[in-house]
Amino acid sequence: MSTTASYVATWRGQEIPIRVSPLAGRYLVRLGTEALEVDLLAAGNGLYSLIVAGRSYEVDVVAGEEELTVLVRNEPYRIRMQDERTARLRAATGMGKAQAGKRTLTSPMPGKVVRHLVKVGDAVEAGQGVIVVEAMKMENELRAPGPGTVREIRAPEGALVAGGAPLVVIE
């Protein structure tokens, strides 16, 4: 990366501007008003090793249909990333709002479906829990990315699922 890259991340309904600039073999990452120096090593297959403020992190990134699932210290974070230009265009055309249409929740990592929190036909709100997946001895509640109706539940309770496997379809 020879110049600054600009993005907009949406996490828990909040938009966060991100700027990434090269800095003598590292990166300067600005998250909103906070600046961090980051050492980054891409290990392949969506796995990264980061050193941030002297602390080491192993980060696994799985791309879904509309967002990334970022696993840090066994904690999944679902984040929507857009380059800044796309975010501006979507906002200007009204496409930046919570997306309507078909959305598929996917498993952030290999695991076991522990329980369904909704059933087919249920109306859900953005951020509402819909399914729980156990992975690495931790239960992860996956939440609706936007309002809609549950159209399909593709993985029954007790099913073993791969990372990225479709679980619930909301429309």
Distance between the termini: 38 Å
Mean pLDDT: 85
Helix content: under 10%
Q: Low-confidence runs (pLDDT<50, min 5 residues)? A: none
Q: Can you name the CATH architecture of the largest domain? A: 2-Layer Sandwich
* CATH classification class of the largest domain: Alpha Beta
* Physical arrangement of strands within the biggest beta sheet: 1-2-3-4-5-6-7-8
The helix-strand sequence is: EEEEEEEEHEEEEEEEE
**So what's the overall shape?**
globular
CATH topology of the largest domain: Glycoprotein, Type 4 Pilin
Which characteristics define this entry?
four-stranded antiparallel sheet; 5% helix; mainly beta; eight-stranded antiparallel beta barrel; Glycoprotein, Type 4 Pilin; globular; OB fold (Dihydrolipoamide Acetyltransferase, E2P); 171 residues
Structure in words:
The chain folds into 2 domains: 5-90, Glycoprotein, Type 4 Pilin; 98-170, Beta Barrel (OB fold (Dihydrolipoamide Acetyltransferase, E2P)). The chain has one helix spanning 84-92; strands at 5-11, 14-23, 26-31, 34-44, 47-52, 55-63, 68-72, 75-83, 103-106, 111-116, 123-124, 129-135, 138-143, 148-153, 160-161, 166-170. The model has no long low-confidence stretch (mean pLDDT 85). 5% of the residues lie in helices and 59% in strands. The termini are far apart. Strand 3 (26-31) and strand 4 (34-44) form a beta hairpin.
